[in-house]
Amino acid sequence: xxxxxxxxxxxxxxxxxxxxxxxxxxxxxxxxxxxxxxxxxxxxxxxxxxxxxxxxxxxxxxxxxxxxxxxxxxxxxxxxxxxxxxxxxxxxxxxxxxxxxxxxxxxxxxxxxxxxxxxxxxxxxxxxxxxxxxxxxxxxxxxxxxxxxxxxxxxxxxxxxxxxxxxxxxxxxxxxxxxxxxxxxxxxxxxxxxxxxxxxxxxxxxxxxxxxxxxxxxxxxx
Length: 222
Description:
This protein is an alpha+beta fold. It has helices at 7-13, 19-28, 116-123, 143-151, 184-191; strands spanning 5-6, 31-33, 36-38, 43-44, 50-52, 55-58, 65-70, 97-99, 107-113, 131-137, 164-167, 172-177, 196-204, 207-208, 216-218. It has 3 domains: 5-58, RNA-binding S4 domain (Structural Genomics Hypothetical 15.5 Kd Protein In mrcA-pckA Intergenic Region, Chain A), CATH 3.10.290; 63-129 and 206-222, 2-Layer Sandwich (Alpha-Beta Plaits), CATH 3.30.70.580; 130-204, 2-Layer Sandwich (Alpha-Beta Plaits). Helix content is 19%, strand content 29%.
C-alpha cells in the first residue's frame, strides 16, 4: 500500500523526531526526496527515497509487476507448505500478491506484484475489472445454455451477475466476468448440467495471456 503521508509525519512517527524538530529539519534545506531538496511538508510515497544531509533515512520501494501463465496442477499460493505452489513456476524472492487466483485445475493468466495497492485495485469487487476465459465442457453447448449463463446462475452462495457468453464451437465457449466467486464458472456450468473439462483465463482487464512470451514476463505499461 502506498504510504501517502507527508514527510513530517514520517519524521515524527517513524524516526521519532519531535514536531518542532521535524519542522526545523524540513526548513533547513538538508532533506531531499528522490534527489530533490525540499523545504516544505511534501507528500511522501512508499516508493520515495529520502536523504538527510546526504544520508539515506528511507529506502524507496521498487515495485515489480509480472504476468504469469499458470499451468494446470499448480496451486495459486506462495505457501511453501502447499505442494506444487506458485514458487515452483515463479521463483522470485520477496512478498508478492496475486491479482486473480485460479483453482488448481485451471490454467492461464495471473498477475503478480509486490505492489499491494495495485493488486487491490484490480481485485476489489467494486472495481468490476473484466476477466475473460475460454472454457471446454463435456456436452454440446446449446443456445439455452448460452442464454442462461449470460443472465446469471444461482450457484448456491449467490446468483451470479449477468455476463457476456459467446459460443466458440460445439463444446467450447468464451465468457467475460466482472466478479470472481470461488470456482464460479465451474459452479455455473455444473448447475446447468455441464462439467468443465478445461478452463483457461485469457485476459484480466487490459492484460492478455497472448502477450506473454514464455511462462512469464515483466509488465512495463502499468
